[in-house]
Amino acid sequence: MALRWYATVSFALVAGYLAFPADLRPIPFLAVTFGAIPAVIVGMRSSPAAARAPWWWVLAGLVVFNVGNLAWLWYFYVQGRATGDGTLADLLYNLANLLMLAGAMTVVLRRGRRDIGGLIDAGITAFALGGLLWDAFVLPQLTAADTPMSRQAALFVNVLVMAGGLGALLRVSTVSGRQVPALWLMTLSMGTGLAGNLVAAFAVDPATGTRPDWTTMIFMAGYTFLGCAALHPSAADATRPGPEPKDDLTAGRLTFLGIMTALIPIVGGGRAILKLPTDGLLVALGSAVVIPLVMVRVARLANQRRRAERALLRMVNRDPLTGLPNRAGCLERLAAELDRPGVAVLFCDLDGFKPVNDRLGHAAGDELLIAVATRLRGCIREQDLVSRFGGDEFVVVCRDDDPHRAVDAVCGRIREMVSQPLTVGGESVRIGMSVGVAFAEPGSCIDDLIGRADLAMYEAKRSKSVGALSLSGF
User: Fold this and answer.
1) Can you give the residue range of the structural domain that contains 449?
2) Which stretches make up the GGDEF domain (predicted)?
3) In terms of Cα–Cα distance, which of 79, 89, 72 is closest to 25?
4) In a domain, 320, yes or no
5) Which of 311, 343, 365 finishes a domain?
6) Residue at 143 is within a domain
7) Contact 451, 436 (CB under 8 A)
8) pTM as predicted
9) Mean pLDDT lowest among 10-24, 39-53, 217-231, 235-249
10) Residue 112 in 3-state DSSP?
């Protein structure tokens, strides 16, 4: 209800702005600009506390904007100045734009935290296109109108800041997974504000430095869109993390980014060669902003590739069920340990696993293997390794200055482990374990050591019963 009334009244004031006498037009203008403040306050209070941070920035920006509006009206009506260029109003407008950008970026960073690569691409593109728009169209118009440098600098900051914010908001709006109207309304507000600045630059009268009064309606619409965004029920969703889109830097996308990176220097340099008005500050600033963004983008891709390679390596050397190193991981570790003295291998095979698996099902069998793996981790020291060698077989690798003492300690803990029942599939079960031990000798190879431990395990299995530990060694 609040959104409907606010939108109806505000847009009615925007549509009827020119119907007011010229000296009364500040009334609907201030009604719309000040009206956005309570709209944001109401919308912010209806959002969860964790979602209010962006709206605090927006509220601060609106307050500063309105102070700037009052300052501009004072200069215009009291001092009789045609424009507010170079005045306190200009400074306040720039500060307000930065506060608004902070609010937009807070939304972008919260909503797009899973899409940093896409946001960087959007920022590069928006900055490059904003720079092209400035250098090819806006600057020549301002130069022809003999616009003061203070006004050019203020407009330059506004255009680039708002272009970057608009690009980022468009990105999070289009990949939000589901439509979030508040995001689109905020994007419309930013786009309308940018359009207002550009239209005002092109519509300004070169002789007087004033702009047509109808251009004020564009800025009023921007305020209204912002108030509607705050009041919309989806405002809280705008700060929730969005989906994680696929981030593939394809050849086409890389080519596009390359073009965007080179756009500002090429256009600026081309205009300089043709002796047309060009902005050296834009070329320098464009390179200072866009090139680091590209470097960050490439660095992120390199990190993603390294993480993928590490994850793939973990998958190759890791048992997916128990999380223990698999056969390949065990053999890799054993190959590294054989270069050092005091290595022992314990080959462990579960007794009674098959009856449990057959009676309770494969899911219970998997649960049993996971439980055994967890308990085996607690039986070894930090420097030892336990691995799932295959099926219901586990291999422990120990290295110690006194390997016999280390093996005795590990076997003692395993004996205690198998003496306690396990609960799987909702039932209490008891299993045993046959352990074969082999100690490395000078010149031992991996196959020899594993083979002797495996043979010792079968010797132990012949002499034991389920629910107990049987040991044999070679």
Assistant:
1) 327-473
2) 341-474
3) 72
4) no
5) 311
6) yes
7) no
8) 0.59
9) 235-249
10) coil
